[in-house]
Amino acid sequence: MIIFFVPDTRRKNEIYYLQAMFPDKVTTIRVERLGFKSPLTEEQLKHISETDLDNFKFDYYIKSESGLDNLENEILRVVFNKENKEYEMKKFFDRYC
To answer: Which of 3, 13, 35, 55 sits 20 to 30 Å CA-CA off 21?
Structure first.
């Protein structure tokens, strides 16, 4: 099994392209960083690259309260549906990321 993480998808067509290339093999995850204040202006926040995925139906949603420190663990918990030991996570990310 090969896993690719695409950490910054901004448009529906980017996801549709991956789904077309790899039917039934794409899992989408939307991460919301709770408490994160964007440095973008109101005008920038309204740009299509910031809003196109707002109503997209993702497979999973993660509401991260722990910031980036624990985000890898939260993603792995969703992807593998289990708790991962730190050494397993490190081994996985060293190999695939």
So the answer is: 55
